[in-house]
């Protein structure tokens, strides 16, 4: 099943006070760019030395480095080299780097957004450059260094030059790390060890090498907004150029799931084959032979699979796919263990560690989140929606959407669930249905709750759906749990997902699930079914659509939130079958309204929104 839409991966920023714990107030809709650099953070010291060191710097001699702070002065603007922490993010994790050498280190800052908001320097590029080029005689070299800090809106790049600084080649950056904000995320491990094999970046015949570290914003299109220039700080120590270890196989990408989506809860009706794969790169000095990726599953069913054996040449990358898929069967928990083996003993095993995990086959729940709440998505006082893609593998009616609202969501907040589909032919986003507006109680916050849909919605085989939860109240916080690959979990600024400029992907997974439980008690009329209104929100007119079980007198009334009547549709006899009533809201003031549908004396009330 293909995802047939390209979504805007943009950035909007939310202004506001900064928390004293050093986490910034950031919109979690911020797009997190996946780095194309061949590096992976390794938070512990390698098992062996990375070959022979041909140059190193522990910053004990500051003149080994040239600093260009783009005209800025002061210890917290640009780079500085000393043994003192000068940045504003002074908690233990983001404090002085716990490097091997201790003493001096290089530190990057750009103002103090907590003490003096708005003092960040704008439109700056800060450079920390190796002063004297080193002589090299091989392309097969490794750049390594220790770092700590965190990512907000920063672009933190690692660069080399083979022509004494005339031009620079970017060999890595930190943009593959998660953003730290009040919405969640973490700082880097202290220290994080970075290793980048330079063989593919150094042209043949090169005789010299320089290293540079560069900082600016990742979002130059918003460069006039002071918030895109906020940084927690970036600390670097123990930089080295070495020959590579003999054997070093690095995992560069780790995937499991079905057609691009990983599910931690799968209803029996939506079971589909699960794929497992790894991308690896040989960053050592010798070929790695008989490289095999293995996956074992135990629990409600068992499975053992492996990839075909591969030889990975020096500097080469390879993809390891299991030769068989795993299709779960019975309801229960499935525990997944994974291995990466080779004939040759890896000298740097810390950059190919594979975490084990579990998922469940359930009776009714379809979930992308991992069930461990960590942070939240919010939009301050503005309306928003958050949710995930879901692929449907068998026709099924859905009666509810599950969601978790984080602590801090106000009691009395008005929220709703809404489902759109991606048309398999045109790729258009098509409204499917939504719930009534729900008013949150205290018992519905910080727990899994079910939002009942107005009528069962028929989901179609071979279709991808946006399953979203939104709000009409300020400061609502939808919990996140786990991470998503880009373009599969989403934030919508406002309440209209069909407008591309409103859509942002997020790599934090919103706790928004499909609930197929057929016993859910929905608010349904006995004389009519499938009561929906579309479009909603609307600009000029909208239609109440329903299916009459028998001929009946039907009327409707629209009221504002104060209870004042703003429109009346007089009673009229309608025949059994599909029917609709048009509401002309051309003269309505933008806002939220209730409509009440009366069918043969039975009534049902739902919300509509005039844009």
State the low-pLDDT regions, or none: 1-49
* Overall structural domain count: 4
Shape: globular
Q: Summarize model confidence as the mean pLDDT.
A: 87
CATH fold-level label of the largest domain: Jelly Rolls
For the secondary structure, the number of strands is 42
Per CATH, the architecture of the largest domain is Sandwich
Q: In the CATH hierarchy, what is the class of the largest domain?
A: Mainly Beta
Description:
With 611 residues, the chain is an all-beta fold. The chain is built from no helices and 42 strands. Strands 24, 26, 27, 28, 30, 32 and 33 form a 7-stranded antiparallel β-sheet that branches. Strands 1, 3, 4, 7, 10 and 12 form a 6-stranded antiparallel β-sheet that branches. Strands 2, 5, 6, 8, 9 and 11 form a 6-stranded antiparallel β-sheet that branches. The radius of gyration is 28 Å and the shape is globular.
Keywords:
mainly beta, disordered N terminus, 42 strands, Jelly Rolls, 611 residues, six-stranded antiparallel β-sheet, seven-stranded antiparallel β-sheet, Immunoglobulin-like, 4 domains
